[in-house]
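Milestone M4 deliverable, item 7.
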Amino acid sequence: MIAEGVATAVHDVSDGGVLVALAEMAMASGIGAELDRAPLAAHAFWFGEEQGRYVVTVDADVAEKVMARARAAGIQARQLGLTGGDALTLQDERPILVAKLRERFEGWLPAYMAGDNP
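Output delivered:
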């Protein structure tokens, strides 16, 4: 348990990296996020597929408590941004509407199989 009584969502980062995990979480919840700048090369940070990394969402009022517990346990943790709104937004990039992301993600294969895509 992350913290007593804290509502959380958790997603592993292995397939596609942090940004794919965040996109999947956004599509599942319908909630967007404004993401902070990557601490190193953006492509490596957002799409790196290292094992053992997780994205965890918590209510803002307990975020520092969760971060403190992670530090105390020797777990590296960083804030990626803030959830809310209807788009995923990376600094210096155009926002991606969660509804459009879901439409493209869920609609591509059926359209392709039906011969609607070249």
